[in-house]
TrEMBL record:
Organism: Paragemmobacter aquarius
Protein name: Antibiotic biosynthesis monooxygenase
């Protein structure tokens, strides 16, 4: 399984909170289009949002790798932030069940 990780560092926690909601809705809406097999959005108190999208096939991963989803690019225009764009291979992943929290 391959993963695309976006680490977004914002100037303050309030911007990060708004961005986390925006990313959750935006990336969540792309699950079918991008064939995302797993999506996790994390908010840290330091004003950092981390979005992790997992893919089952290299073709799906490469498609996202070649073009950053518009939701990430538009977010950077709305809220000043630094974006670290990481490609990774999932070594271990466990989920008891799918959950959605707010």
């Amino acid at each position: 399984m391959l993963a695309k990780i976006y680490n977004l560092r914002f100037q303050n926690l309030n911007d990060a909170r708004h961005a986390a909601t925006y990313i959750s809705e935006g990336m969540g809406g792309l699950v079918g289009e991008l064939n995302i097999s797993g999506l996790t959005v994390l908010l840290r108190k330091e004003g950092v949002v981390q979005a992790i999208a997992r893919f089952d096939t290299q073709e799906d991963f490469v498609r996202v790798q070649n073009k950053r989803p518009d939701v990430i690019s538009l977010l950077q225009k709305r809220f000043p932030c630094m974006i670290e764009d990481i490609a990774a291979v999932t070594v271990y992943s466990y989920e008891r069940e799918a959950v959605s929290t707010v």
